[in-house]
Design brief:
The chain is α+β, with helices and mostly antiparallel strands. It has one domain. 44% of the residues lie in helices and 16% in strands. Strands 1-2-3 form a three-stranded antiparallel sheet. A two-stranded antiparallel ribbon has the order 4-5. Helix 1 runs parallel beside helix 3. The protein is elongated, with a radius of gyration of 18 Å. The structure holds zinc ion. The site of zinc ion (ZN) has 8 residues, from strand 5 and helix 4.
């Protein structure tokens, strides 16, 4: 089934479901593991605390952020800026999500990348009219 056959208000729910399930996939977890660093924490008496601080390194700016401050990004967008979601089947979309190359980005770098991609997308859609 193509996304064009699905009411537009449901498309976002379906793409979100596929992206959320990818978070449990080995490729997603491996990406986080590769960017993960542990920084030991010490007690006031100098003893080592059992649980270290965990940070993830941004693949773009190398800044280190905690789990909530980083995002896993598809290096090539799941839907390229010169493509339209409606043209894809659910299988094709899921395959792109699960098989694409991913990287850890800090929120700032991810925002810059997404804004640039969305600008290209708008330009592409405008060119179709
Ligand atoms: Zn960054």
């Amino acid at each position: 089934m193509k996304f064009s056959q699905i009411p537009s208000r449901q498309r976002g729910l379906i793409t979100k479901g596929i992206r959320d399930s990818f978070k449990r996939d080995a490729r997603y977890k491996r990406c986080l593991t590769n960017a993960r660093i542990e920084v030991p924490r010490y007690k006031k008496d100098g003893g080592l605390m059992k649980v270290p601080n965990v940070y993830f390194t941004c693949n773009h700016c190398s800044r280190q952020g905690k789990q909530g401050e980083i995002q896993v990004d598809h290096i090539e967008p799941v839907i390229r800026t010169d493509e339209i979601l409606a043209d894809f089947t659910l299988d094709e979309y899921a395959s792109r999500v699960f098989n694409g190359q991913v990287q850890v980005l800090c929120k700032d770098c991810h925002t810059v990348k997404s804004k640039s991609e969305n600008k290209d997308r708008r330009a592409f859609k405008k060119s179709l009219k």
